[in-house]
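Researcher: Let's do a round of design. I'm pasting the structure tokens now; please hold your answer until I've finished.
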């Protein structure tokens, strides 16, 4: 039996649907039965998940990481803390010191709610800050005010929470409105976050401001500026989109990047089970009913994913063997200062992380 000690749970509702967001969510209506329906979805999913695990020789062990993502898990509120507390107690245990993270939208929290979750083991908060600029918080269609962001930051700092911030780059009108990310970052860092997730805005063709997006060169400068700025303050750029003070890396997300088993529940939640012989299973929950779509990954797919995921992190990729074609690619990356290539490992730096997609193309061309 292989042990599973990580669980992602997707909470599928939001107070407002931000116009740039691609995550699966529905608009929350307090008068509806959405929360009760979600509880039923989780309960109905459980048996299906148990069968999937038994069929593939997986068994639960006490959880090392639990991650509530969304959507807006903070909107699940007190009802969620009560439900999940009991629900988990009947099925799973949290290992002492387990990392339990919840994503919190600054417009959907109360102290009472956070304390209720804390009583169930919550010990890490991921805040959807996005920007601290009054113009851009509106452009980004956020439903919360900057005062609400500051108030949550202050609460987390004053109560010694281990917290992370989401910060967006590459916003529309950034050049025209002279977005000053240095001021935003210095304001954010006054609250002493332990972790920062830095996302480059991914704009679909239907995005209302798609014509006003900054060009690649502008985004590259922003990304490298933030990376250098945070590294000078002691943050480690440990994954393409993530920085942490040493020891505060996301244990949950590291499991994904290392290709370890992570179970998932909730609509669109996606789980991954590595298997013997270097195969793997990936499964995704449907949204309309508690059923999964299972994808079987073969050796070739798992090994390509392994290259991509390890290159995403500062753990680096250790090629099994060095062919002349791969040697040539790596020499080229070295000449372009994309990372550290000593002792048989390929560890990208911030510039290399930024180029990752084109570096994967180099590997394909070299026969990987
Ligand atoms: C599920 S949301 C976080 C929790 C909560 N719903 C909120 O918005 O505060 C996860 C994060 O994904 C990021 N995100 C959403 N849509 C994105 C996009 N199109 N491009 C880049 N990042 C995006 C945002 O930074 C957001 O904070
Ligand atoms: S609140 Fe978060 S999950 Fe919901 S739409 Fe906005 S960015 Fe997406």
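Researcher: That's everything. Go ahead.
Model: Designed sequence:
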């Amino acid at each position: 039996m292989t042990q599973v000690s990580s669980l992602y749970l997707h909470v599928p509702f939001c107070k407002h649907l931000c116009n740039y967001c691609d995550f699966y969510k529905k608009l929350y209506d307090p008068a509806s039965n959405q929360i009760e329906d979600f509880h039923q979805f989780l309960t109905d999913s459980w048996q299906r998940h148990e069968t999937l695990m038994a069929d593939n020789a997986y068994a639960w062990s006490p959880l090392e990481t639990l991650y509530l993502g969304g959507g807006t898990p903070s909107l699940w509120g007190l009802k969620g803390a009560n439900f999940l507390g009991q629900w988990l107690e009947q099925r799973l245990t949290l290992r002492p010191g387990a990392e339990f993270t919840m994503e919190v939208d600054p417009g959907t929290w109360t102290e009472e709610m956070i304390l209720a979750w804390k009583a169930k083991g919550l010990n890490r908060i991921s805040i959807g800050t996005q920007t601290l600029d009054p113009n851009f918080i509106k452009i980004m269609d956020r439903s919360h005010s900057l005062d609400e962001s500051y108030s949550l930051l202050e609460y987390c700092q004053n109560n010694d929470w281990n917290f992370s911030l989401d910060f967006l780059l590459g916003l529309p009108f950034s050049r025209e409105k002279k977005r000053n990310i240095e001021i935003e970052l210095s304001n954010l860092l006054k609250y002493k976050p332990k972790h920062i997730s830095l996302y480059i805005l991914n704009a679909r063709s239907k995005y209302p401001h798609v014509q006003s997006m900054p060009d690649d060169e502008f985004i590259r400068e922003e990304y490298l500026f933030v990376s250098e700025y945070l590294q000078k303050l002691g943050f480690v750029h440990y994954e393409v989109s993530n920085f942490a003070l040493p020891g505060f890396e996301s244990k949950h997300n590291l499991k994904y990047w290392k290709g370890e088993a992570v179970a998932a529940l909730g609509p669109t939640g996606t789980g991954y089970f590595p298997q013997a012989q270097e195969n793997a299973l990936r499964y995704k929950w449907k949204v309309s009913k508690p059923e999964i779509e299972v994808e079987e990954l073969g050796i070739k797919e798992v090994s390509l994913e392994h290259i991509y995921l390890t290159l995403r992190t500062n753990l680096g990729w250790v090629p099994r063997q060095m062919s002349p074609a791969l040697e040539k690619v790596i020499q080229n990356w070295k000449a372009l200062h994309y990372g550290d290539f000593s002792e048989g490992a390929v560890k990208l730096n911030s510039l290399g992380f930024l180029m990752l997609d084109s570096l994967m193309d180099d590997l394909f061309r070299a026969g990987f």
